[in-house]
Amino acid sequence: MAWRCSGNSNKQLVSxxxxxxxxxxxxxxxxxxxxxxxxxxxxxxxxxxxxPQPIGYAATISAPHMHAYAxxxxxxxxxxxxxxxxxxxGSGYLSAVLYHLVGPTGTVVGIEHVDELTQ
Length: 119
What we know:
Structural class: alpha+beta
């Protein structure tokens, strides 16, 4: 269950998501392991809770299980060198995860309408 996937570190969070079968591929687990959620939330002490977190300007970063599901469902389309458009990229967390799935020859573009979130 998603709400039981929280951890004390990014590594533990990803491990719990995999143990709960929310992450079912090594590629998604590896990509999420490379992007520390603490760098994308306002309160790093709550970064590894499997819940949405406020990021300011009436916006939230989605719960980690939602990012895991999104990346997993998109995985068949995310090939090395691929191109991704992330509309409503918010904190940029999912864009960073997707970058690791398309690799350095790929392109990920995040578009956010709240200018302050892009700073």
